[in-house]
Amino acid sequence: MTTPKSLVQTFETLEKNKIPIAKYTVLENKKDLKNLTLPIYIKIDSQKHKSKLGGVKRCNTLHEAVNTTNLFLKKFPKNLLILQEEIKGRELFVGIKKDIVFGEVLVVGAGGTKVESKKDLAFRALPIKKKEIKRMLKELMIYPELKKGNKVA
Q1: Span 103-133, pLDDT tens digits
Q2: Who has the most CB within 10 Å: 13, 44, 104, 111?
Q3: With b meaning 16 or more CB within 10 Å and e meaning fewer, what string describes 14-47?
């Protein structure tokens, strides 16, 4: 694999391939904070590990979201900010990498802190059909957990 895409590029590629994701917007104005259902995640648009940089924050209130936005705008002045609604269910890692041989590659796996510790990932070249995404999920070690609480297959 070569370079990962930015978060915005990843979201756009997922949408183009009809892969559902939580509702998001790129912050253009602080008024955008009022247009999303709380809780939301505020994330920096970076190819680097957002959590390690301190660039991801869950906000439960509008006040908290405004404060986090102000902090991130100061701390990461060159990064776009992404506002993303929280959805119920298991946390998954979903990313797009650009490979010199395969082109755009979808990566899915255990999300949150598990993504690095478990290295539980599946890869497929894009474009991809929904049926193949289901196969990818079934390859994951966390699939039994996914199956318990969510309709996956």
Answers
A1: 989 999 887 666 666 788 999 999 988 899 8
A2: 44
A3: beebebeeeebeebeeeeebeebeeebbbbbbbe
